[in-house]
Design brief:
The chain has 139 residues and is an alpha+beta fold. The chain is built from four helices and six strands.
Length: 139
């Protein structure tokens, strides 16, 4: 892995108040090392880190992604209620889910208009609104 990517990953963790362990830095470097936003699953990140020769278990990847979410570094996007994607762009924005390719991409936030939400039930408040627009290629 490139030293610049490792440094970027380490800084990302430190700025969030997380201890930059070897495994966390390796995962962080894959997520933000090139300055581009990513949408990953735990499994895809696990495959990427193994390709680099790092010794990390899938359980560690899941736990680390959860820690990154808790620290505000990642946004979790649920698809199908069972598949989670992790997004390095933590600003509120919609997503396209490409069903045929099983991948998640950002959708243009400036084109989305939500004019009204239903009232939350008594005793509850709306914490966030996730917009996932499902796409499939035309036949």
């Amino acid at each position: 892995m490139l030293p610049k990517a490792l440094e970027c990953g380490s800084d990302w963790l430190t700025d969030a108040g997380l201890r930059p362990t070897r495994q966390r830095v390796a995962l962080a470097a894959l997520l933000v090392g090139d300055g581009q936003h990513r949408h990953v699953t735990a499994e895809s990140l696990f495959s990427d880190v193994l390709r680099l020769g790092e010794s990390v278990s899938l359980a560690t990847v899941y736990n680390t992604l959860r820690t990154f979410c808790d620290a505000g570094l990642l946004q979790e996007v649920m698809v199908d209620g069972s598949k989670s994607y992790f997004d390095t762009n933590t600003k509120d924005h919609p997503h396209f889910f490409w069903e045929d390719e099983v991948r998640l991409t950002d959708a243009p936030a400036d084109q989305l208009q939500i004019t009204r939400l239903p009232d939350a039930p008594e005793g509850a408040e709306i914490a966030s609104v996730d917009v996932v627009i499902r796409l499939r290629r035309r036949s």
